[in-house]
Design a protein that fits this description.
mainly alpha
């Protein structure tokens, strides 16, 4: 467990450090105690000077045990002025925090409403992570929207896989069925890529987001 002095140093690294330092500090802050930890991470998420600092703050809040992290994550996910990778990290964090105990809660309903709306976003990143979030939350009312995405969305999420594949997985999770592991497009052998798609056509997964291959999501 980090001491109060160590926590202050870690917060400073998230806000002012290099990208690598920011995410390493974010990992250590996941177990740090005290309301000031969430408050400081929320401040960085709201007004940090660098995109990766805000993304690292979202990552730390996503992994933190305090449910107080939900409010800043939801505000970030809904902020149309924020960068898509930061918002995607926040959506993933909401899916981790809003488990079965939050069914019927106002913040969960707002998060689900936002994710359903973002399935129509121009951003492939936001559509992808909204599929993940809705599937993780088992959102039954999202089923027709996810079905439409699974049938009609042609885009890739950079560093991951087709958005329609993520929507397919979300529908399976909601139905309580297991899914296949997914491998990012750029890591697939040529025979497993979409016809006409280069097997190495995408970048590596973002540092902050957590999956490379996946099965059914686990919610903390």
């Amino acid at each position: 467990m980090a001491t109060p002095l160590e926590v202050r140093v870690l917060i400073d690294q998230v806000e002012q450090g290099t990208e690598l330092d920011a995410f390493e500090a974010a990992k250590r802050l996941a177990d740090a105690e005290g309301d000031d930890v969430v408050a400081n991470l929320g401040r960085i998420l709201r007004s940090g000077p660098r995109t990766y600092s805000r993304q690292a703050a979202a990552y730390a809040l996503a992994c933190h045990k305090s449910r107080n992290a939900v409010v800043p994550l939801l505000a970030c996910a809904a902020d149309a002025e924020e960068q898509e990778d930061v918002r995607g990290e926040a959506i993933e964090g909401l899916a981790k925090h809003l488990d079965d105990d939050s069914v019927g809660a106002d913040l969960r309903a707002k998060a689900e409403d936002l994710m359903i709306d973002l399935l129509r976003s121009a951003s492939p990143v936001l559509r992808f992570w909204s599929c993940f979030g809705l599937g993780t939350l088992g959102c039954q009312r999202a089923v027709p929207h996810l079905h439409e995405v699974s049938q009609k969305d042609p885009d890739l999420c950079p560093g991951w896989w087709y958005i329609r594949e993520e929507a397919e997985d979300a529908l399976e999770w909601i139905a309580g069925r297991p899914t296949q592991d997914r491998i990012p497009i750029h890591m697939r052998k040529p025979r497993t890529t979409e016809p006409g798609t280069a097997p190495n056509g995408g970048p590596a997964p973002p540092l902050g987001n957590s999956r490379v291959t996946k099965g059914p999501p686990s919610v903390s």
